[in-house]
């Protein structure tokens, strides 16, 4: 299993909400969990993907081909086509946000990393909004991105957060490059890579350097009454939220606190805090814009054929040091090594 159906909201948040949510929030969370559960069954998404993508051709180099669909609160995909590349946008904020966020993510991968869409060959970008009823998640299913409306009281519509849209699209890039397995350490690396590129797309779009950025994931997603800043914090994993309905952010920042669990595919959204924090430390030490040095090293590593689909944290760290040396030289490689050491990984 690779990153197929990789949702942004982990089961531990929804489990907490299903137990401690006020009133109908309980049933909303149970409903979201039951939808997420269906997708854990193996599916022949690759065969399906090629059929769907036959209808939505690749784009010419240098530009995206975006298709936004409306599921009309149902769970059939992709739904009704409501906006395509260059078309007249309907009066629906979520359609427009999804379209713009996919465009900003395309621009980042193209202009900064030299990658023409998810597969590097102009693959059309498909996104469905208004998926399910008050569905509290967003995911990449191997062929397209899917966004729920949220419940409005804890989770706001998922298209609001550019970093979350970029997170989902990056799962597509990872699936077609390193193909990291979606469980245990390779799964946590898979999740972390989506967070790393998610924050970089945000920072690039806003023109923020490493000191201006908030290093949060999904800061625009949590409704006002929630006691929390975001879903995750790369600067301080474990501090993003602490709420009576959602529980407390369980992310570790160091290998000493590595969480051994069978839930969440072996803690893929939990232990991702460790490589997330390493990236943050390295980017801060290097200074400037995250995407110019640390981001290039991460991209070189992600697209390196030597990165195995069952890579452990230490394997990934070793390759980042090799690429730092190769592209930027000894000083940068030392900063990379220091960052990994501070989270308990490496020599
Ligand atoms: Zn994810």
TrEMBL record:
It comes from Larsenimonas suaedae. Its EC number is 3.4.24.-. Keywords: Hydrolase, Metal-binding, Metalloprotease, Protease, Secreted, Zinc. It comes from the Bacteria. Extracellular zinc metalloprotease. InterPro entries: Metalloprotease_M4, Peptidase_M4, Peptidase_M4/M1_CTD_sf, Peptidase_M4_C_domain, Peptidase_M4_domain. Residues 68-175 form the Peptidase M4 domain. Its cofactor is Zn(2+). It is found in: Secreted. Belongs to the peptidase M4 family. The keyword RNA-binding does not apply. This is Neutral metalloproteinase.
């Amino acid at each position: 299993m690779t990153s197929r159906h990789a949702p942004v909201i982990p089961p531990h948040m929804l489990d907490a909400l299903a137990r401690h949510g006020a009133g109908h929030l309980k049933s909303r969370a149970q409903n979201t969990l039951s939808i997420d559960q269906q997708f854990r069954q193996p599916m022949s998404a690759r065969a399906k993907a090629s059929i769907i993508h036959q209808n939505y051709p690749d784009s010419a180099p240098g530009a995206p081909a975006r298709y936004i669909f409306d599921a009309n609160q149902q769970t059939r995909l992709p739904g009704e086509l409501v906006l395509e590349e260059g078309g007249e946008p309907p009066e629906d904020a979520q359609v427009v946000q999804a379209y713009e966020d996919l465009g900003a993510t395309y621009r980042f991968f193209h202009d900064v990393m030299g990658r023409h869409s998810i597969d590097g060959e102009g693959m059309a970008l498909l996104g469905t909004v208004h998926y399910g009823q008050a569905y509290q998640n967003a995911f990449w299913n191997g062929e397209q991105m899917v966004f729920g409306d949220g419940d409005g009281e804890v989770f706001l519509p998922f298209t609001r957060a550019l970093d979350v849209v970029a997170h989902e699209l990056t799962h597509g890039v990872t699936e077609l490059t390193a193909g990291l397995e979606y469980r245990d350490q390779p799964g946590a690396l898979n999740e972390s890579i989506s967070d790393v590129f998610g924050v970089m797309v945000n920072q690039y779009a806003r023109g923020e350097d490493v000191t201006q950025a908030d290093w949060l994931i999904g800061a625009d997603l949590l409704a006002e009454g929630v006691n929390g800043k975001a879903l995750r914090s790369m600067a301080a994993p474990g501090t993003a939220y602490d709420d009576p309905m959602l529980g407390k952010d369980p992310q570790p920042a160091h290998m000493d606190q590595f969480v051994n669990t069978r839930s969440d595919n072996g803690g893929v959204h939990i232990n991702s805090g460790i490589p997330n924090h390493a990236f943050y430390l390295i980017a801060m030490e290097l200074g400037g814009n995250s995407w110019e040095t640390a981001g290039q090293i991460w991209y070189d590593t992600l697209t390196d054929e030597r990165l195995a689909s069952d890579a452990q944290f230490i394997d990934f760290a070793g390759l980042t040091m090799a690429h730092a040396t190769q592209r930027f030289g000894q000083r940068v490689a030392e900063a990379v090594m220091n960052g990994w050491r501070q989270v308990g990984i490496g020599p």
